[in-house]
Design a protein that fits this description.
The chain has 102 residues and is of the alpha+beta class. The protein has three helices and four strands. The strands form two sheets. It has a two-stranded antiparallel sheet. It starts with a helix and ends in an 8-residue tail after the last strand.
Length: 102
């Protein structure tokens, strides 16, 4: 049984913004909360664009460093990036890997 639709349903129902990118930093998915959150920057139209186009140079360096860290070890999968005190939420980057850890 393919459970892909179930996973998408879980992510779609999350009240936190979820943005998924490929290893080339291209945004491949945004849940409805992310589309709403980033509506002033294009919302759903950001899908297919580079994540690096949405951030300043300091943030881009951090993103590139984290993606490099993900590639160094298959156990490097989750890292705290910052705390948003205005919304009292933590933001993480997570490596999504296949069954072989790639």
């Amino acid at each position: 049984m393919d459970i892909t639709a179930f996973f998408k349903s879980v992510v779609d129902s999350d009240i936190a913004p979820v943005v998924i990118c490929d290893t080339n930093h291209t945004i491949i998915y945004m849940n409805p909360t992310a589309c709403e959150r980033y509506s002033k920057r294009g919302g759903i139209n950001l899908v297919g664009k580079s994540l690096l186009e949405c951030h300043n140079s300091d943030s881009n360096k951090k993103i590139l460093d984290i993606v490099e860290w993900f590639g160094k070890d298959k156990n490097n999968n989750r890292i705290f990036t910052f705390h948003n005190p205005k919304e009292n939420r933590d933001v993480y980057m997570i490596a999504l890997r296949d069954e072989y850890g790639n």
